[in-house]
Design goal:
Radius of gyration: 16 Å
Helix content: over 70%
Number of strands: 0
Number of domains: 2
Oligomer: single chain
Order of helices and strands: HHHHH
Distance between the termini: 23 Å
């Protein structure tokens, strides 16, 4: 449920970003972004590639603006939306989610990043 809400948010926010940058295809790029959001951690970066390419075709400076806006959307989603979604759907504190991600990455790198939130959720339910 949380992944679906996150994907929907990442579908809507890039559409606004592309519309703001006067991109010619904001809806198509938003659908691509929403689909790639399902792929954890690298999906948002992969979804920025077609948007930057289309922006570069329209104007090279537009590609830079698209990259900045996608980065902003990704950071906003990662640090604000996902912790709040986890809080509402799982009942897990946003601070615990962020701490679990930081500790998981420090201990085991990418693998720790992937398993940290489910592990923290399981520990919260057990305790």
């Amino acid at each position: 449920m949380a992944s679906l809400l996150s994907a929907l948010a990442f579908l809507f926010l890039p559409m606004l970003a592309c519309w703001f940058c006067t991109s010619s295809t904001p809806l198509v790029l938003a659908l691509v972004a929403g689909l790639f959001e399902i792929v954890p951690y690298i999906g948002p970066f992969l979804s920025a590639i077609p948007a930057m390419f289309i922006g570069f075709i329209q104007a090279p400076s537009l590609a830079i603006w698209v990259a900045v806006l996608y980065l902003f959307v990704h950071e906003f989603e990662g640090y604000v939306l996902v912790p709040k979604i986890m809080e509402k759907t799982v009942g897990q504190s946003p601070l615990l989610t962020l701490l679990a991600l930081l500790i998981g990455y420090q201990l085991a790198g990418i693998v720790g990043l992937i398993i940290s939130v489910p592990l923290a959720t399981a520990l919260t339910v057990i305790v």
